[in-house]
Structure formats: structure tokens, C-alpha cells
Write a structure and sequence with these properties.
This protein has about 325 residues and is α/β, with parallel strands linked by helices. It folds into two domains: about 180 residues, FAD/NAD(P)-binding domain (3-Layer(bba) Sandwich); about 120 residues, FAD/NAD(P)-binding domain (3-Layer(bba) Sandwich). It has seven helices and 19 strands. Strands 1, 2, 5, 6, 7, 8 and 19 form a seven-stranded mixed sheet that branches. Strands 10-17-11-12-13 form a five-stranded parallel sheet, covered by helices on one side. The chain has a three-stranded antiparallel sheet with strand order 14-15-16.
Length: about 325
């Protein structure tokens, strides 16, 4: 006789601010949520040193410490936090089926997807080594630490232009490293950076190396037109070449945009499948902040609670 498959009322896939907030609300509602942390427990904030823009931490907080606080709070109300990766899903019919670590099958009445998105990186060794020490993929998060200093940002799309404009309000000079001889950004964003006296665009340039031992002190660049390589002194290096939502596993079932972000019904966290909700950066390609992720995590838990009540599954 085969072992009975565990049935979960509210399954939360992914940790981070969205997942843990969803867990806090679902647990307080008596829904006994189970949260699987995924491959990076705590999400992107676990590789973020100082977080100064999250309400409630007047002196700032280390990213890993904040995620530990979130986890403890969710567990305090009864969330089962489990370490594991959801490797397969089947949303053809309810209850929905998932597999953990290619081995353990589960079924769930409702599912909250909070798998987040990962920044795209250049793939340099120095980029990894100096991450959090002057290398960042979020100007809004970390630009403040380099106010009054000269910085560099790599990328040529809307995000890069937007972040370059943001940094120009804080930093004394912003070098924008663009691989081609044109920007991919919308015309309005191109005009904004080109007319900004504090932004200098370095056309046809590639990043060879980020310089520094304990912190960023410069960047080594190559001019693709002349093959010249030279060092540019900067105090920070921002990567703005895009994000990749961690949603690949859900593509056969969940409606997404062309970039892989999950589409939700406006004003809700509802997806195209009843009983499956999405929150945080997995469905947000605009704001991508911890506080907005937490807000949608709250929404997802409330949406799941109402769904269960309407279907008399509570």
C-alpha cells in the first residue's frame, strides 16, 4: 500500500519578503501554511548588506538579518518553513500537485507563488567578489550609500536609463557604460539621460573588470571601436541589464508576459488559475522593492483565505 500524499491548505513557494509576509497572514488566519524556501532562502535580500529603506528599521538592518526576522515571525504563528525546491508542478486540476526536490509529491488546495526574480549579471569574478561592497543591481536600494561620489552603471535599456537618472540626483557623476552605439531604451528615457549634465554615456564600451580588493575603486573598460583598455575610477558599479523572474517551472500553466513575469488580475494577486496566486518580484517588473513585495504577499494571503472560504475549504 502506497504512502498517503500530504495535503496542504496553503502552499507558499519561495521565501523573501513576499513569501514570508504571505505566511504571516495565512498563519494568523489559521490556514496552517507550508512554505518552501527554494534555492536561496530569504531571496535576494540575503546578498544585500545594508537595508535602509524598509520601514521599522530606523538604524537600517542587514539583509540576511531582516529575512531571519521575517522567518521567525512567520514561524511564531505556526508556519512550517521547509528547506527544499519545488521541481515540478501540475495545475491541471485541484487539488494542485507539486514535487519537492524531484522526489516528494504534495497536493495543495491553494498555492502562493513568491519565487522572486534574479538580477542578470555580467559574469565577472570581481562582480561576484565585490557584490555588496560597491557592486549592486539596485540603484534605488544602494545609491544612497554613494551620495556625492562618482559611479558607473552598465546597461542600455529603460531600467539602466531610469537608474542612471536616479543616481544623478545623488551622485556627483554617473558614467553609463553602453555596449553598442545606441540605447535600447524608449525615446523619452533616452532623451532624459542624454540631456542630463551629470550623466556621461560611454558608447561602444564593455566592462573588462571591476577594480578593488575590499571595495570598488574603479572599473576597467574596453573601447570596442579602438580596442583601447583603460581604468576609470569610480566608487560603485551598478548592473542594470535586466532581471529574470524565477517562473520557468510554471510556464505550462500560468499566463505570463514576454519576459516571464506572472500576469495577475489588476488589484489582486489572482492568476489565470483559480486558487493560485502570485506576489513579489515574480509578478512585479516595475518596483521590485522589499516593501512592495511584502505588500503583495499580504494581498496573496488574503486572496487565498477568501478563496478557501468561498469554496468551503477552510
Amino acid at each position: 500500500m502506497s504512502e498517503e500524499i500530504e495535503k496542504i491548505k496553503v502552499l507558499i513557494i519561495g521565501s523573501g519578503p513576499a513569501g514570508y509576509t504571505a505566511a504571516i497572514y495565512a498563519a494568523r488566519a489559521g490556514l496552517n501554511p507550508v512554505l518552501y524556501t527554494g534555492i536561496q532562502p530569504g531571496g535576494q535580500l540575503t546578498i544585500t548588506n545594508d537595508v535602509e529603506n524598509y520601514p521599522g528599521y530606523p538604524d537600517g538592518v542587514m539583509g540576511p538579518e531582516m529575512m531571519e526576522d521575517f522567518r521567525k515571525q512567520s514561524e511564531r504563528f505556526g508556519t512550517q518553513v521547509r528547506y527544499g525546491l519545488i521541481t515540478d508542478v501540475n495545475f491541471d486540476s485541484r487539488p494542485y500537485r507539486v514535487t519537492v526536490d524531484d522526489a516528494v509529491p504534495l497536493i495543495a488546495e491553494t498555492i502562493i507563488i513568491s519565487t522572486g526574480a534574479s538580477a542578470k549579471w555580467l559574469g565577472l569574478e570581481s562582480e561576484t567578489r565585490l557584490n555588496g561592497k560597491g557592486v549592486s543591481a539596485c540603484a534605488v536600494c544602494d545609491g544612497f550609500f554613494f551620495r556625492g561620489l562618482e559611479v558607473a552603471i552598465v546597461g542600455g535599456g529603460d531600467t539602466a536609463c531610469e537608474e542612471a537618472s536616479y543616481l544623478s540626483n545623488i551622485c556627483s557623476k554617473v558614467y553609463m557604460i553602453v555596449r553598442r552605439d545606441e540605447l535600447r531604451a524608449s525615446q523619452i528615457m533616452q532623451n532624459r539621460v542624454m540631456k542630463n549634465p551629470k550623466v556621461e554615456i560611454l558608447w561602444n564600451h564593455e566592462t573588462v573588470e571591476i577594480l578593488g580588493d575590499e571595495e570598488v575603486v574603479g572599473v576597467r573598460l574596453k573601447n570596442n571601436k579602438t580596442d583601447e583598455t583603460y581604468d576609470l575610477p569610480v566608487s560603485a558599479f551598478f548592473v542594470a541589464i535586466g532581471h529574470q523572474p524565477n517562473t520557468e517551472i510554471f510556464k505550462p500553466f500560468i499566463t505570463m508576459d514576454d519576459s516571464g513575469y506572472i500576469k495577475t488580475i489588476p488589484g489582486t494577486t489572482k492568476t489565470n488559475i483559480p486558487g493560485i496566486f502570485a506576489c513579489g518580484d515574480a509578478q512585479d517588473n516595475v518596483y521590485r522593492q522589499a516593501v512592495t513585495a511584502a505588500g503583495t504577499g499580504c494581498m496573496a494571503a488574503l486572496d487565498a483565505e477568501r478563496y478557501l472560504a468561498e469554496h468551503e475549504l477552510t
